[in-house]
Amino acid sequence: xxxxxxxxxxxxxxxxxxxxxxxxxxxxxxxxxxxxxxxxxxxxxxxxxxxxxxxxxxxxxxxxxxxxxxxxxxxxxxxxxxxxxxxxxxxxxxxxxxxxxxxxxxxxxxxxxxxxxxxxxxxxxxxxxxxxxxxxxxxxxxxxxxxxxxxxxxxxxxxxxxxxxxxxxxxxxxxxxxxxxxxxxxxxxxxxxxxxxxxxxxxxxxxxxxxxxxxxxxxxxxxxxxxxxxxxxxx
Length: 235
Known about the structure:
By secondary structure, this protein is α/β, with parallel strands linked by helices. It is about 40% helix and about 25% strand. It is built from eight helices and nine strands. The strands form two sheets. A six-stranded mixed beta sheet has the order 5-6-7-3-8-9, sandwiched between helices. It has a three-stranded antiparallel beta sheet with strand order 2-1-4, covered by helices on one side.
């Protein structure tokens, strides 16, 4: 069953067309890896799925409706209040999602340990860029949503923690959480159930990582992506 279904999606900014008739399907309880160069439309697509941007044309169905409180979003641009501490940030977002105080504290303790964050009293404004990104991921995971949209969440994360994050994503996906993740680490995307290779606002291919590689007679997703790009240029 498709948790997200996109057909013929068009969205731009003024005269600039970003998404140009994009089709996409994300199965419920799966990890979908969205790959593509900067500026190809990945972040715009996530914002349309979230309801932050309205499609100019085409159709979008997300579990039958626009996502509400049951979505976790970690944007590429850090969107945190620098004057709040880590604990205050967790409490603020937890309350927005209707969580009880004890639930917030329990999840906070787990997330700080899991994501190797500093003590909860540390102000967000005094964290490093990598720590802020991990706090943003913690906020997205805090209320254990059914849908996770993660925009480059592992940038600047060391390989050991990156592997832990992916293991956790695979665990919660197997329990029913639907995850869309953008990444420029192409090797990471091989851990997704399905991948979409995106360029110039459309998907060049969408399938399991193995099927995409086999379709291009490639031994890696990177090779497959380059082969698809060359084919697109010739066309």
